[in-house]
Write a structure and sequence with these properties.
The chain is an alpha/beta fold. The protein has 13 helices and 25 strands. The protein has 3 domains: 179 residues, 3-Layer(bba) Sandwich (FAD/NAD(P)-binding domain), CATH 3.50.50; 112 residues, FAD/NAD(P)-binding domain, CATH 3.50.50.60; 198 residues, Glutaredoxin (3-Layer(aba) Sandwich), CATH 3.40.30. This is Thioredoxin reductase. InterPro entries: AhpF_homologue_put, FAD/NAD-bd_sf, FAD/NAD-binding_dom, Ferredoxin-NADP_redctase_2, Thioredoxin-like_fold, Thioredoxin-like_sf.
């Protein structure tokens, strides 16, 4: 049956990738869906040291290796947000913002999102002192005092990571001790830059435009104490208080417990035949990478008999060879740039295939001055040029075409007719932003990332000029979602500009808008929004302007 998948995996964290590996290796036709970015929550972890057989690895590298392994066995990847499922028929229908998909079996590896505690001031100072990702935002607190709220694995591990930047780290633990393994807790307890307060909770965070003070309470005695910064200084509060399962959209579809976690049997099957759960989204005692990959493997192998039975029942011929996945612009996570190369030979081969599918020619033009960043941009364009005739690379120096008030250096994406598409990068599009850059080209040249008719109409209805600045860090795993959302709108509406800035290179932006967390989005130099934004999130914001 054309268009029918044996298995659809929803989610690309370790559980989803493990399920994809096992299912594809069993010669199933497998599609893996992700709504934002490949890798899940583990990509914000700077160091994984408890995965058997691997002494130390960062979360992004680990999941990227898993993704490649799944692709090598034939799994396909697609960026799409799952909105609903129709489980009333034998062929399960997965409804996404990119269209409906059919499958015999589904693995729900939905993961979970960081939990907000709800203390006074948490929402107010989110992005301006209150943060949830040490990898993304730790560098913004260099030389400052930092408080870590939580006593689990994440709190202990990320507190140690934050000592690379912070002057001092204070961990606030509600319980009488850490709730993670002793070896992990000991690293935090014994670190010279870390102080721990047990049976303590945060009561309030306050300040002006930035954090200036915080109140804490001893749960046992009721005694309160206050931290105040020296005049003119600020500090950070990192919250690691667990996660909330991402299951709001499947209420009533499969059985959930009172906290919203998916209930499964020992084979990871839900109460609906052929629908399986895996990873942090499931009811379980331990939420770690090793248990997530175990869940994924169990779910996929349990699906083997179910899918085989459905093949026989529906008269589907068994596949003897796996179906090799194609490079997909809307589902591929690029390698991080290493060494002296911005674009590796492997990446160039993949880009050549993708660029060959462009519907229109696109030009990447660098507006340069004599700064070191400009020299790096010129090197980046030299590596990009010559990959395909569909992508032309040009360089313009300050004395040639640029005006005196034009901010330089910049990488501009031009349409086929030579006019600006609205996409600019005030950065070297490396690290996590390389994929955002490539997706930007894909959207300008066409066919572009699929969007729904409703989204296309909402973009078309933007009638006033909108300038969007997206401040990012190249180490941030959540920034690309916002960059791609803004770029997608700019590619469709000539009234919208989406300019991406590497905040490390533009400290004046950080100072002007009091940015202490990325991604940060500044709209028309007035409205400031923190946190990753999907296309729908951004459209909702723009419609209020």
């Amino acid at each position: 049956m054309d268009g029918l998948y044996d298995v659809i995996v929803v989610g690309t964290g370790p559980a989803g990738l493990s399920a994809a590996i096992y299912a594809a290796r069993a010669r199933f036709k497998v599609l893996v869906l992700e709504k934002e970015k490949l890798g899940g929550q583990i990509t914000i972890t700077s160091e994984v040291v408890n995965y058997p057989g691997i002494e130390s690895i960062d979360g992004t590298t680990l999941t990227d290796k898993m993704r490649k392994q799944a692709e090598n066995f034939g799994a396909e990847f697609k960026m799409a947000k799952v909105l609903d499922m129709d489980l009333s028929q034998e062929l399960r229908v997965v409804k996404t913002d990119k269209g409906d998909l059919k499958a015999l079996g589904v693995v729900l590896a939905l993961g979970a999102n960081p939990r907000m505690i709800g203390f006074q001031g948490e929402e107010t100072f989110k992005g301006r002192g209150v943060a949830y990702c040490a990898t993304c935002d730790g560098e913004f607190f260099t030389g400052m005092d930092v408080f870590v709220i939580g006593g689990g694995y994440a709190a202990a591990e990320e507190a140690v990571f934050l000592t690379k930047y912070a002057k001092k780290v204070t961990i606030i633990v509600r319980e009488d001790d850490f709730t993670c393994a002793g070896s992990v807790a000991d690293k935090a307890r014994e670190h010279e830059k870390i102080e721990v307060h047990y049976h303590t909770e945060i009561v309030e965070a306050a300040g002006d435009t930035l954090l200036r003070t915080a109140k804490f309470r001893d749960i046992k005695t009721g005694e309160e104490w206050q931290y105040d910064t020296p005049e003119g200084e600020t500090f950070g509060i990192f919250v690691f208080a667990g996660y909330v399962p991402d299951t709001s959209w499947i209420h009533g579809k499969v059985a959930l417990n009172h906290d919203g976690y998916i209930i499964t049997d020992p084979d990871q099957m839900t109460d609906i035949p052929g629908i399986y759960g895996a990873g942090d989204v499931c009811v379980k005692n331990l939420r770690q990478v090793v248990t997530a990959v175990s869940d994924g493997a169990i779910a996929a192998t349990s699906l083997e008999k179910y899918v085989a039975d459905m093949w026989e029942k529906l008269g589907i011929e068994k596949r003897e060879e796996p179906v090799k996945a194609e490079y997909k612009a809307d589902g591929h996570s690029e390698e991080s740039v290493e060494g002296d190369e911005f674009i590796t030979p492997e990446m160039k081969l993949q880009l050549k295939d993708l660029f060959g599918k462009f519907e229109r020619k696109v030009t990447v033009k660098a507006l340069l001055n004599k700064s070191p960043l400009a020299a790096q941009m010129e090197g980046f364009l030299k590596e990009l040029s010559g990959i395909s005739d569909q992508v032309e690379c040009l360089v313009s120096w300050e004395s040639e075409e640029t005006t005196t008030d034009e901010k330089l250096p910049a990488i501009c994406v031009l349409k086929e007719d030579g006019t600006e598409s609205g996409l600019r990068f005030y950065a070297i599009p490396g690290g996590h932003e390389f994929n955002s850059f490539v997706i930007g080209l894909y959207n300008v040249a066409g066919p572009g990332q699929a969007i729904s008719p409703e989204e296309a109409q909402r973009i078309k209805e933007i009638k006033k000029p909108v300038d969007i600045i997206v401040a990012v860090s190249l180490s941030c795993t959540m920034c690309p979602t916002t960059v791609m959302s803004a770029g997608r709108i700019a590619a469709e509406n000539e009234l919208v500009n989406a300019w991406t800035y590497d905040l490390n290179l533009y400290p004046e932006l950080k100072e002007r808008y009091q940015i202490m967390s990325v991604p940060c989005m500044i709209i028309n130099q007035k409205k400031v929004e923190f946190g990753k934004k999907s296309l729908e999130d951004l459209l909702n914001i723009l419609e209020t302007i």
